[in-house]
Design brief:
There is one protein chain. With 149 residues, the protein is an all-alpha fold. It has 2 domains: 6-62; 74-137, no CATH class. It is 66% helix and 0% strand. The mean pLDDT is 90.
Length: 149
């Protein structure tokens, strides 16, 4: 049991746990409806069950194969948590486009090899693309720029 692929086992069981929790929460809070007349709980329950099945399909084969030694890198985890907080704080105060731009640029710092010019180009491109999809295409009522000046 010491030579299992623990990385995939933990990841698969984590996905399974999240999927089961989401499905149970949706089952307890929303009505399911029927297949021909779906209720608000049908999609979250279905997605939770699908996520749990995917998690098991990752974890079960990992029990029977030998895993490679893994190293724990904290930098990507910390940077991505900072990105989530940054987006949450900026979307209301500065608007959608600056929030997406800064989140993408900060996320590139999770890797060592991304030059600043590429990070800025990637941030601008993704900010433009998400603006076009969510504000122009879908018409979501989110302010693009909400600057006080």
């Amino acid at each position: 049991m010491l030579d299992r692929d623990y990385r995939d086992i933990v990841a698969g069981l984590g996905l399974t746990l999240i999927g089961v929790a989401a499905a149970l929460y949706a089952l307890s809070k929303y009505s399911m409806g029927t297949v021909s007349r779906m209720g608000p709980g049908m999609m979250p329950v279905s997605l939770g069950v699908i996520l749990a099945v995917f998690g098991l399909s990752i974890a079960i084969p990992a029990l029977f194969r030998k895993g490679a030694p893994s190293d724990l890198r904290l930098r990507p985890l910390i940077v991505l948590c900072i990105c989530i907080v940054c987006f949450a704080l900026m979307i209301e105060t500065l608007g959608f486009v600056p929030a997406v731009f800064s989140t993408v640029v900060i996320a590139t710092f999770a890797e060592n090899r991304v030059p600043l010019t590429r990070a800025l180009i990637l941030g601008a491109g993704l900010a433009l693309l998400t603006w076009a999809i969510f504000i122009l295409g879908l018409g979501l009522p989110i302010s693009s720029f909400d600057w006080a000046f």
